[in-house]
Inverse folding.
């Protein structure tokens, strides 16, 4: 079986929905952000603060290269995974790519109830505008990178997960 790959903006629910799917299908979940933290031995926030975004993206590319050979796993990715074309190329070789799409309001709601640090969204007076800007900049890339687009607005984790499993 191919891998299930989840892409989409920060706060759309990739990790949470991935957890549901991997449990239901009894497959392993691999999270690129977790692997980056293991590799650097520091939080993503510290990596951004100390070494900057370019360094983070370089490690992200390495991690994707290392995991893309897997089969039958669920891969949840960081929101910026689409910024490097080689990531999508590698993930597509063994995977079906699902773009989780939703309204900015949905993202803001999810982020407000999350305790994960998001360096690109922190210390922002107007989080709504920042999320909107980032999402608009990347939306084309999400569309062109995916096999399926899944709308998450007003749906439960279970129903989104089941929809992905249906297409898979
Ligand atoms: C990022 C999203 C984060 C993480 C890093 C950069 C981004 O992952 O990879 O902070 O560029 O949008 P999540 O999408 O899980 O928040």
């Amino acid at each position: 079986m191919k891998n299930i790959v989840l892409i989409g903006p920060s706060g759309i629910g990739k990790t949470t929905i991935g957890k549901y799917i991997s449990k239901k299908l009894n497959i392993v979940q691999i999270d690129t952000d977790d692997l980056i933290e293991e590799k650097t031995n520091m939080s993503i926030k510290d990596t951004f603060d100390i070494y900057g975004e370019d360094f983070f993206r370089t490690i992200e590319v390495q991690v994707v290269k290392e995991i893309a050979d897997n089969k039958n796993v669920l891969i949840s990715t960081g929101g910026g995974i689409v910024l490097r074309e080689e990531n999508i190329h590698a993930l597509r070789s063994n995977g079906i790519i699902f773009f989780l799409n939703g309204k900015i309001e949905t993202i803001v709601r999810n982020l407000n109830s999350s305790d994960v640090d998001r360096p690109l969204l922190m210390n922002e007076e107007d989080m709504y505008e920042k999320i909107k800007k980032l999402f608009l900049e990347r939306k084309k890339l999400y569309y062109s990178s995916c096999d399926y687009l899944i709308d998450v607005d007003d749906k439960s984790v279970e129903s989104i997960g089941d929809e992905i499993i249906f297409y898979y």
In short: Residues 3-167 form a domain with the Rossmann fold fold (CATH 3.40.50.300). Residues 70 and 94 are 7 Å apart (CA to CA). The pocket of shikimate-3-phosphate is lined by residues 10, 14, 33, 44, 78-80, 118-120 (CB under 6 Å). The longest helix spans residues 127-145.
